[in-house]
Design goal:
16% strand; NADH Oxidase; globular; alpha+beta; 193 residues
């Protein structure tokens, strides 16, 4: 269960899953079963997508599996110290072109929506996710064996069950213990009149 300091202090009431979602870095030794990983992927599969193209692909490895380190080695230095403890690492790909047809300019948007489905399903199972942009995208794409003319490595995910923040080194421990903040609605939305 999430630390109370990470529960969003919202101006308006929102769903509990949204209030409790945050990007954890402190993961326990508990593994994610193959069955539960499939539940997360099933949730992702039911996201909306333009023309129902479902332009996403997930390439993942569980901790202690032979390929986990291959994915971990794609991460930038700032993500490596804590991501090594994730129960699973996931490369998230978007199909930006399909068989040399017109480019799918919505692919990354649709992948983001699928990621959110996956993340909210994970949270409902007490599995936390951390989305990462700090990684070597060409290396991750090559590792995924996806056609670089069609696919783009957009993000990576670290998934796992929470552990105590004191296991983290700085600056990650402080980040884990800091309250969440967001811009006010008036800073990003306005009604046309």
């Amino acid at each position: 269960m999430t630390s109370s300091i990470k529960v969003a202090d919202t101006q308006y009431p929102i769903h509990e899953l949204l209030r409790n979602r945050w990007s954890a870095r402190s993961f326990s030794d508990q593994s994610i079963s193959s069955y539960d990983m499939n539940r997360l992927l099933e949730a992702a599969s039911w996201s909306f997508s333009a023309n129902n193209m479902q332009p996403w692909r997930y390439v993942y490895a569980h901790r202690h599996s032979p390929r986990f380190d291959d994915i971990w080695n794609c991460l930038a230095g700032g993500n490596r110290p804590w991501a090594k403890n994730a129960a699973a690492l996931v490369i998230c790909l978007a199909q930006t072109n399909r068989n040399t047809e017109k480019p799918n300019v919505w692919a990354s948007h649709d992948l983001g929506a699928a990621n959110m489905n996956l993340i909210l399903q994970a949270l409902s199972m007490d599995i936390y996710a951390h989305v990462m942009g700090g990684f070597d995208a060409p290396k991750a794409l090559a590792l995924s064996q996806a056609n670089p003319d069609e696919w783009e490595a957009v993000t990576m995910l670290a998934l796992g069950y929470l552990d105590a923040p004191d296991q983290l080194e700085e600056p990650f421990r402080t980040r884990e213990l800091s309250p969440r903040t967001r811009k006010s609605i008036v800073d990003f939305a306005w009604e046309l009149s």
